[in-house]
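Entry 14. Structure prediction run on the chain below.
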Amino acid sequence: MPSDPAHDCAAARDWHPETRLVHAGTLRSPFGETAEALFLTQGFAYGSAEECETRFAGPDPGFLYSRFSNPTVAMFEARMAALEGAEAARATASGMAAITAALVGPVRAGDHVVAARALFGSCRWVIEDYLPRFGVASTLVDGRDLGAWRAAMRPNTKVLFLESPSNPTLEVIDIAAVADIAHAAGAVLVVDNVFATPLWQSPLALGADCVVYSATKHIDGQGRCMGGVILASEQFIQDHVHMLLRQTGPCLSPFNAWVMLKGLETLTLRVERQTATAATVADALAGHPKIARLIYPGRADHPQAEVVAKQMRGGSTLVAFEVAGGKAAAFRFMNALRLVTITNNLGDAKSLVTSPAITTHQRLTAAERAVLGIGDGLIRFSAGLEHPDDVMTDLLSALDAV
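Output returned:
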């Protein structure tokens, strides 16, 4: 290939994020195409038996098999690494595949994991149900309480894990402080950065060892493809992630990687617009008589506003608010929407709402949801790319039906 993604990543360090999202990591075939090529192939041919041997042995860095190396996927990985400021990246078939690999890779039977209790439902299942099956104990803590993190640490603690802002109540955790706690104990910190996006928060720069994304969300951002990505130092990837992904196979398809590459080109434009709309929605609903509670990281009344100001460059594309009147009122509100779509996804070109109590966190008991602040009336709103006036008209009209 005429271009080396690692070389492009080095050059991209001097570029602004918008430029990295268009150019970083580009590989060109001998045909010299301008758009990234889609290498929809399972395997790769070798010119000789000797070349095949050296390719598999390691000295020849060429591609082997699309389960663990593919030119289109490599471009996506290199571009994400350049954007995040990471030494290395590995793409996966979904966000949960990325999270699971990042958590499973560093641990062995007898180890211990500490995680913030405010997590996406599937993440809690991996922490609470899956890891213990293999002898890895886990403890959930209030992520906002640094004392709780310290108290939960054990001699065998190997991984700390958090989302910030969290799903769905947008709690913001002091990443740098938790990283210090992890490193003092010889553990690593893994951060799910989906709700902040790479544009508004940089966990690696704050001390995290690994960042994970569901690329399904803002990175594709248009409701088309599933994907995930793990970003970290080259050593973290080689020690904990590379062989796990190569041998177990949760690979990102070349087609999905190509879609993600094209999505990255417009990520800045989309996230800036979505964030502006989310802020408008938050300000408009904050004093509404039918809204019992509203949470948005860009507002001064956010419970962790000082942490937000310290570690985030922008708010979020998400707003959480509780409709007064519980489940029945929340259902009336959602059913009255005409523009905003009811679904369980987020980070889309279309504005979306969901009721976490009946979707993403329905597996939890009512008591567990109450501890997390997930009431039956809680709505998670994800801003899209529509004109904000049209979105606001739809939301306010739906509230009139409550």
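The radius of gyration is 22 Å.
Filed with the rest of this week's runs.
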